[in-house]
Amino acid sequence: NLQSREPLAPSAAAWPAALLEAPRVASWLASSSPFTVYSTAEGPPGEEVVAPLAALLAGARCGVVVAGAMRSDAGRRAAAALAARLGWPLLADINSGLRKPGAAGESEGTTSAAAVRSVPLYDLLIGAEEVAPPDVVLMAGGR
After folding, report:
1. Do residue 98 and residue 139 come from a single domain?
2. From 31's CA, which of 37, 65, 94, 103 has a CA 20 to 30 Å away?
3. How confident is the model at residue 68 (pLDDT cuts 50, 70, 90)?
């Protein structure tokens, strides 16, 4: 066995001042609302959901789409198309069904833009110092 540091142990290091002074973080710290916003809908979302999301996506410099558990091919195609449209990498959970070729609906012999940017073994990259953290994480599907 090889000992390594405890990955979830609390760190005694202070939060970087630049992070705490960022406009989005500063406004969140001054409010009582959660930083993460969950949205679920039975049908197409209304303007009250779309407008803030569109503004967030438009201002993102380094985003990523995370595909969680999905039960339908339509959901898989939509998540892959969204990642391709945004030009963001797609982190596909094993339960998304998007890890295998053709899962996003591309025809045989072709590769969708989202499939090309799909990141295999992404769990090894999360938290690595060499990888810039995303400023927006868009989750599609279940956990």
Report:
1. yes
2. 65
3. very high
